[in-house]
Amino acid sequence: MSERLAMDADIVCVGFGPATGGFLSTVAHASACASSACPPNIICYERADDIGFGVSGVVTRARGIRASFPDLNPADIPMAAEVRQEKVLYLLDPIGASRRSLALRAADKLIRAFRFALPIENHALELPYTPEFLHKQGGLVLSIGQFNQWVGQQLMASGAVQIWPATPVVAAAV
Ligand SMILES: Cc1cc2nc3c(=O)[nH]c(=O)nc-3n(C[C@H](O)[C@H](O)[C@H](O)COP(=O)(O)OP(=O)(O)OC[C@H]3O[C@@H](n4cnc5c(N)ncnc54)[C@H](O)[C@@H]3O)c2cc1C
Question: Which pTM value belongs to this model?
Fold first, then answer.
């Protein structure tokens, strides 16, 4: 049997998603501040061929992102946009495709009955206010895949972390 190549590392992460991206950004920042002569060797394995494979989108207040990247310029992140305006729409269901509770169906009927007096456009009623927990003003609209890719590039450029795509981890030996 051929001998396996071994490599020492101080921190090894399995999988590069938003959680690991946040963790590694904090570690990279801390090791840059420590300015040690012997920085830790940090490796992150990702099974996907590309760290930007995610297709989901997210609207976030971005407090953690801004804390991790104090000099953040959203224009640097592909497909990212700042939240400048927000409104909440109650979507009606003109063809009955969604499974709604009795209460919501009753609400739909009531709204339709008053449709000429209400701000309804394209089967959506604009609510007069945005509940506090939904406020994202000043936050960011992101493609998770593009964001991961950007975070990965920042980490690799810092020299503090190596990210290895296309390397699925099947077992760990400590
Ligand atoms: C179908 C779907 C749609 C979603 N849509 C949205 C949305 O629109 N908006 C939103 O905010 N959230 C959405 N989410 C949730 C969001 O994707 C997760 O909350 C977020 O990705 C979690 O981040 P994470 O870093 O914890 O894990 P993940 O993003 O899952 O990252 C884990 C990483 O580890 C890698 N990995 C796993 N096992 C191994 C291994 N053995 N070896 C190497 N690598 C490995 C995976 O490939 C993955 O890249 C969606 C989730 C799903 C499943």
Answer: 0.85
